[in-house]
Each structure stands twice: as C-alpha cells, then as structure tokens.
Amino acid sequence: MTKILFTKDHEYIVVEGDIGAVGITDFAQGQLGDVVFVELPEIGKVTKPGDQAGVVESVKAASDVFAPIAGEVVEVNKALEENPALVNEDAQGAGWFYKVKIGNPAELDALLDEAAYKAHLESLA
Amino acid sequence: MIASPTPLHALHLGLGGRMVAFAGYDLPVNYPAGIIAEHLWTRENAGLFDVSHMGQAFVSGPGAAARLETLLPGDLQGLACKRIRYSQFTNADGGILDDLMVTKLDEAGDKLFLVVNAACKTQDFSLLQANLPDLKLEILQDRALLALQGPLAARALERHIPGVSALKFMAQQDFVWRGETLFVSRSGYTGEDGFEISIPADFAENLAESLLAEEEVQAIGLGARDSLRLEAGLCLYGHDIDATTSPIEAGLNWSISKRRREQGGFPGAARVQRELGQGVARLRVGLILDGKAPAREGAEIVDSTGAIVGRVTSGGFSPSLSRPIAMGYVAPKCAAPGTPLSLIVRGKPLPAHVKTLPFVPNRYQR
Which residues get modified to N6-lipoyllysine (chain A) (predicted)? Predict the structure, then answer.
C-alpha cells in the first residue's frame, strides 16, 4: 500500500514500505515552468529533513529540492537525465527524483497529507 | 511597491499569463504554453510581446540630434530621417547608464523619438532634463508598446496595416489604424524580423486582440523574451551591461561610428577611445556549455588552470539549441572563439567554450 505526503516547500514523498520516492509537486512544476535539468543526489547520500537533496533548473532559474525526511538515498531517477521534462509531464509519477530508505518513520507524521497540502496551496493563492 | 498594470493587463490575465513584477510593472513571465513553446513559436511564426513598460519619449528643439549626441556615442546627426539607431547613455567613466533606441523624426534632426528601458526610464528622463534643458522632453505615458517578432510577423501585420511590410530594418513610419496614429518600427530584440508598434494606450488591447486572432500569432511572455534575446547575443541592461561596463568591453563597437570615435564629445569618450586604441581589460563573450546543467548570472568563469578570468552576466537554457548557453565577461586572452573555460556552478566546474555571438543567426530584413 502506498501513500503520498507533502512538505510546505512543495516536495512530495510516496511511501511504500520502508522506501519513499521523493519529487516536487505538480503545483511546484507549474510554478517553475519548463524543467531543463535536474541535479540528483548521489546514491548512498544520507539526508536529514530539510537538507538540500537536489536542484531543479527551469528555463528561468535554479531551485533547491529539500529532503522531506531523514534517510539514505538508494536510487535516483536516471530517466530525468535524458528527459527532464518528465517533471512537467508527470511530476508526482514518472518525474520522481530519488528513492530514500526511510530512517525514522515517525518523521512522516510531521508531513502534510493530501487534504492538508491542498489547504496549504489554497492559503497561498 | 505595487507593480503597475500595463494597458494589456486584462488581456494577460484572460490569456492565463503567470504574472510577475518586472521593473515596477505586472507582466506575464509566460502563458500556459510555457517559455520553451513560446520561444520556439516566435522563432518559427510570430510572437506578440507587451513591452509597454518601456519608456517612450520625444526629444525636440533646434539641433536636438547634435545635442543628444553629448550624452551618448551613437551617430544621430549621420542618421537618415525616420531611421533608428541603437545607442547607450554613458557616464563620465565610459560606463553604460542605459541602452536605447533613437529614431530621427525629421531631416533637420530637431525631433527624436526615444525608447528606453523600464527600470532606467526615470533616471534617463532626469538625465535629459538636467543636461539638455534647452530641449523639450515629452514623455509618452499614454502610449502602449507592442512588439510583433518572428519570420511571419510581416505577413500577419500586413493584413492589419497595409504597406507595413515594405518598411526596412531599423526604419520607422507612421500608420493610421482605426483612426489612431501608430509609430511602427521594423526592429525588435529577439534576433528575428519584426516590428515594434507604439499605440495610444486605450487602443492597445484592440490591436493586440486583432493580431492574436491571426493564425501566425501567439502571445509571448518575458521568459521567452529573455531566452530569445540571449540566443540573439543581445545585452540586457543591468546584467550584461551596467554603469561599470563600457560599450567597447560589451562589444558594441558597431554602434559607434567612425566620426564619433574620432571626435568624441560624449561622456566617457576618453575611455572609449583608449579602449579602441589599446584594448580592453575584459570582453563580453558568448559561452556554450558542453553539458546539460545551466550556469546562471554571477557564476565565476575559470580557465584551464583554475584561475578566475571572469563572471557570467546572463545564463540559461537555449530552446533553439536545446542546451545551456551564457554570456559573460572574460579577460581578452580568453575571448577567442573555441577557448575552453569552466563555469563554476554550486562549487563544481562545468566545461564550456567561447562561442561567437549570436548563438542563433539573426534574421533581420535588411
């Protein structure tokens, strides 16, 4: 069973067992516009929540991607090297950035569920 | 400060423009199509840009052309009637205060039309009033400015303004459209053929909608305007040129005629003449990155030994070339086309090499 959680900075994590797939939300890709390059973390990198875990470059600007939770990077989305536009086309699916082995499942409780993230977006509008 | 709307504000919102504050104006960075699609559309068809934020003014009085030459190195006296020249206001140190377009409106050179950058217009108009008090400065706050750019711009505009396609590059003519006088220039800032149209503000939306109804025309935001001008090797004021860079360092020698080089008579002429004779300390160059990660403004440029030789002043992604490109200033010894350099991004050197500007060939209708 999978569930998706969000940060206020517009990252998401899709949790499946002890692995989480991290990316930026559909709202975030819409704000950035055309993504032309994604800098992914190195496999084996250990993050804390809020650590810089990648960079997404749109035509206009570079934006940091922050780790939603602690853990070790176990896989990166190689498809983004050839086709960074996947982030625009399917941000919360094929456009994931990296997978992390979840270090402390209790940290997930601090993230937003879909309803809370939607409310957060409405508060920004 | 709240960003001011332009006369096309409602149109931008209606088209789904993503609005940002730019030089004090609320303008679309892109529409739903996105920057890359808008950019490529302009290169292949015709893009409509709202550039109403730019400053428009008449400067008039006896000998206006000669008088304005005391503030810039462009040759205005040698300009034919209704022709346009690109120039720069310079400071006493030869730095650039702003870049602008000047049209000579009469044979005598007693009346000129200026288009200046939005972010600099208050300063530019103060400069004119302070230095040329004998001339009349008429700021055209009630006119919008539209740019229609791209290989199909002439075809689309001709249907609305018969005769406009006969206009030569860097020439201006008045046309009457629905009873209103338009100042139409064959010019632009994308590297493509195109037009800039000054129109009374109240009629701008009508004209924009008429043009957008043409199959060749799409609305284009500031994002693509920036990527288009970067590919065309054109300077963005406040980034690629500023009060410290001279026109010669910026490679704008072509905009200064032989007479003006010899005679001087503009602020900072001594530096310009010295740099023309003895060379410059740094030169603006194009940089093409070998990899896929872009380098942005401010990135350090290093040579093969790792020594810092300059800094990036504009950088981004080229939709036409599908790769990152940049402009920056480097030491002259590193400025030859093909010179391998690295751009430092997030602490890592990205391999690049010097590329002759423009990145994408200009297609002006000369």
Answer: 60
What's the ipTM? 0.89
Contacts of residue B316 in chain A, CB cutoff 8 Å?
59-60
**Is A42 inside any structural domain?**
yes
What own/partner pairs with CB < 8 Å and gap ≥ 24 does A116-124 have?
A116/A6, A117/A6, A117/A25, A120/A6, A120/A8, A121/A27
Interface touch B293/A60, C-beta < 8 Å:
no
Which residues neighbour A85 within 8 Å (Cβ) at sequence distance 6 or greater? Answer: A34, A35
Within an 8 Å CB–CB cutoff, is residue B346 touching chain A? yes
In a domain, A65, yes or no: yes
Yes or no, beta carbons of B294 and A34 under 8 Å apart = no
| Neighbour tally for B246: CB within 10 Å | 25
Are A57 and B317 in contact (CB < 8 Å)?
Answer: yes
- The response to whether B158 counts as a known ligand-binding position is no
Q: Do B319 and A60 touch (CB under 8 A)?
A: no
Task: Give the closest of B18, B35, B346 to A59, CB-based.
Answer: B35
The residue assigned the tokens 């009469």 is: B106
Total structural domains within chain A: 1
Q: Take residue B284 and report the two structure tokens written for it.
A: 């603006």
B358 preceded by a cis bond (ω within 30 of 0): yes
Q: Which domain holds residue A73?
A: 2-117
Residues of B in contact with A57 (CB under 8 A): 293-294, 317
What tens digit of pLDDT does each residue of B133-187 get? 999 999 999 999 999 999 999 999 999 999 999 999 999 999 999 999 999 999 9
Asked if residue A125 is part of any domain, the answer here is no
Domains along the sequence of chain B with CATH? 56-138 (3.30.70.1400)
Q: Tell me which of B27, B35, B41 to substitute to probe the interface with A (most A C-beta atoms closer than 10 Å).
A: B35
CATH code for the domain of A82: 2.40.50.100
Pick the closest to residue A54 from A78, A86, A23 (CA basis): A23
Contact between B84 and B260 under an 8 Å Cβ cutoff? The reply is: no
Instruction: Write the pLDDT tens digit of every residue in B33-81.
Output: 999 999 999 999 999 999 999 999 999 999 999 999 999 999 999 999 9
Instruction: Give the Cα separation of A13 and A125 in Å (integer).
Output: 23
Q: Is residue B120 within 8 Å of residue B298, measured between CB atoms? A: no
Q: What is the pLDDT of residue A58?
A: 95
Chain-chain contact of A62 with B296 (C-beta, under 8 angstroms): yes
- Rounded to whole angstroms, how far apart are CA atoms B306 and B327? 19
pLDDT digits (tens, 9 = 90+) for A56-113: 999 988 999 999 999 999 999 999 999 999 999 999 999 999 999 999 999 999 999 9
Q: Is residue A31 part of a domain?
A: yes
Position A1 pLDDT exceeds 80: no
Burial of B99 (0-12, 13-18, 19+ CB in 10 A): buried
